[in-house]
Every structure is written in structure tokens, then in C-alpha cells.
Amino acid sequence: MEPDKTALRLPLMRSFKEAAALSTKNNDPFYLDAFAFQCWLGDLLSTTIAEYAEKKNPRNRLLQSGQAWQGFQKLFAKAGDEDFPTILSHLLRFAKHDDPQAANLRQALIPLSLEHECTGEYFGAKSARPTPALLSASIGIIRRSLVRWCDWLDASVHFDTHAFWRLAPAAFDPDPDKRELAALGIQQCYLAHCDDSAKARWLSSFSEAAERFKDSTKWPTLGRAMSAQTVLPWPYARVDAAVIRLWPLVKKYNWTYRDLLNVLRPALKRPTAYPCNTEQEFSPYCANVLGLRKPGRGRSARNGKPEGYEIARKLLGQEDKANSGKR
């Protein structure tokens, strides 16, 4: 789902009080939910980064285990069935904005839409608009779609974190204060290429951090992150991206590692090279490098095409198109 270039940028909202004021001013409750979404997605990203920063052994990390849906449920714990159509409408509306938190929602909507096309279980790209037909859909479809959207959201945030860890290891200090300051420093390096909205968000965060850490020995972390040049080698980036992004299918259909390899290999330039040569080297790689462990034991598809195979192939094709567009 591409962002709507005609959509207005979200105003800077630093508290529920400011969001409530905007909702009152515009006679539009969307802004309250939008701020709630920002808090939810920000917490999800921070939690995933903490798993990488505070648990050096990937096997100990808790990744793609329903964190997005758990956070969503806490956020809307008091919501009744009658509230979910409006929440969904606002979530879809939020996803179309240029807010940085919305990017993961858009990314996660791509595989959800592909699943809709292949199975009809969820709402998809064509139906994923706040139309009367969608809003009158059964609460079962809405809830099922939201839960699955959250599965794909976990995968999107996991991959972004994994890539950030490789490209900016300075932002993964075990100390959460230093992580925050390092992230601000790294963001400052790219500030000249950001729009006014992103600059305003960064300036707000920087000002708050400067006040909070003005007497702290941790403050120099920001400057050190700006000048850090360390980048971790990433020899199997294509494999990492595919496994992380396809993991919701592994979980839903209880794929074996052989099933996953059968899906992956046609998309790789070196399909029999490490770590995809054998199941014996592939399964430890998923756990020891990516922090992903398959729940339970499945039975490999005899024809090499497990249930969900077409969804995976379409999703990998979408990835190839996106990557070719960046080159």
C-alpha cells in the first residue's frame, strides 16, 4: 500500500492532551486514535530493539511472538465490538500518512492483502478502505484481519530492527538511555534530507532529551553516535530478509524448515550455498542468527509446495520489485 501523496501530514502531537485538542478543533476523533497508534508502534519498535540490545544471544530473544497484537489489545482494552469498525477505519487512515510509524503498517498491509487475494480470509488492498461495506463487515472478519495484520507488523518491525542493528550497531547499547541518545545522533546525520514534519519531530525529541540529560554523563553518547562509522557485515541479507518477512506463514501453516527452504531457494542467486544448503545448517541459522524458533513439528509437503506457497512466492516477488526500484 503506497502512501497517499495527497494526504495531509499529521500535526506534531506530544501528548494525549494535544491530540484531544486537535480532535476537538477539527471535530474529528481520528487524532486521538492516531496518537494512540504512535505510542503503540513506538513501544513495539523500542521493545524489539531492546531484545537485540539487551540479549546478545539471539536464541534468547523474543521475536514475532504476538507482541504487536498484545500491545494493541492493551491500548484498546476497553473497546467493544461496536468500536472496532471505527478503530479499523482510523488505523487505515493513519497508515496512509507520512508519519514514520505508519511505514511499518503499510509494509505489513502488503502481505495481508496478498493473503486476502489467495484465501479471502481478510480484508485486502481493494477492500482495505474505510468504506460503508467494510465498516459493516462482521466483527469476526475485522478482528481476524487486525490480528493477522499485527503478525505481519511484527515481521516488518523485526526486519527493520535487524537491518538497523547491522547498519548502526552504536544504537544498540544495553543502556536504554544511551540507545535513545544514539538514535537521536544517528537521525541528526540525515536531518538535512528530511521534510519539515520529520525535522519538527526530531527537534521536539532532541529538546526533551537535552533537558533530561543536561547533567548526565550519558549525553556525549549522542555525539559519538553521529561520528560512529562501524557497520556490521551482512553477507546473507537476502536470506535474512526473506526468512524474517515470511515467518508469519511458517507459524500459521506450521512449515518445516524443508518447506521454508523450498520456498526460499528459487528466490536466491546461490540457492545451495550457506546457510541454505541443508536443513541441518539452516535451522540453527534461523535460531542462532535471526532469533526465530519454529513452534512445534510439522510435516513437509511432498510436492515441495506447502500450504501458503503461492502467498510466499507473490510476497517474494513484491520484495524483488521493491529492491529493483531502489537500484
Q: How many beta-strand segments?
A: 0
Q: Quickly count the domains.
A: 3
Count the helices. How many? Answer: 14
Whole-number mean pLDDT: 88
Q: Tell me the span between the first and last alpha carbons.
A: 20 Å
Helix content: 55-70%
Shape: globular
Q: Which band does the percent of strand residues land in?
A: under 5%
**Structural class estimated from helices and strands:** mainly alpha
Radius of gyration: 21 Å
* Major sheet size, sense and barrel closure: none
Order of helices and strands: HHHHHHHHHHHHHH
Q: Runs with pLDDT <50, length 5+? A: 1-7
Q: Care to describe what's here?
A:
The longest helix is centred in the middle third of the chain and has 29 residues, at 139-167. Helix 1 (16-26) packs antiparallel against helix 2. The protein folds into three domains: 16-162, no CATH class; 170-227; 237-326, no CATH class. Helices cover 61% and strands 0% of the residues. It contains 14 helices and no strands. It has helices at 16-26, 30-54, 67-75, 84-95, 102-119, 132-135, 139-167, 176-189, 196-212, 220-227, 237-253, 257-264, 279-288, 309-326. It is mostly helical and 327 residues long. It is globular.
Write the layout of secondary structure elements.
Elements lengths: L15 H11 L3 H25 L12 H9 L8 H12 L6 H18 L12 H4 L3 H29 L8 H14 L6 H17 L7 H8 L9 H17 L3 H8 L14 H10 L20 H18 L1
Helix pairs in contact: 1-2, 2-3, 2-4, 2-7, 3-7, 5-7, 5-14, 7-11, 8-9, 8-10
Essential attributes:
327 residues, mainly alpha, 3 domains, globular
